[in-house]
Amino acid sequence: xxxxxxxxxxxxxxxxxxxxxxxxxxxxxxxxxxxxxxxxxxxxxxxxxxxxxxxxxxxxxxxxxxxxxxxxxxxxxxxxxxxxxxxxxxxxxxxxxxxxxxxxxxxxxxxxxxxxxxxxxxxxxxxxxxxxxxxxxxxxxxxxxxxxxxxxxxxxxxxxxxxxxxxxxxxxxxxxxxxxxxxxxxxx
Length: 188
Hints:
By secondary structure, the protein is α+β, with helices and mostly antiparallel strands.
């Protein structure tokens, strides 16, 4: 594997740093995005600082991994943080994890950052962590996210009926799955 597997020509994925606490605080407490993250209560800076302090633990220990998505600015040497990508519910026995992505500001969406960040993450997950699969849970009404994951090779494998409670009633949630094209163990 050559170069930094956590970046390409468009984005770089990196661990959160202590100086990111204000940025994370603003993103995590943006109520407009709570419905896609199933968040119901605000995060304190104290909790976010504690999270960053423990983010040095590897995924095998913490069972999760959060990375900052930085857009590479072609006109300067500075990268600009635009969002987050998360691995969660990591299962080291079955070699699978859930994945989520957030591009925080409307003006940064539809520029390809989520696609590029997920492409980089998928490569890392399958080549470095050697997971067997990733999955994503997306509300049925989130057409943009469904298209994003499907365009990256995720397959719809199920629908959880009336899974999400919203202000307008109950909504279905779609389960998408991406299998490693190079499985490590023979199927039984």
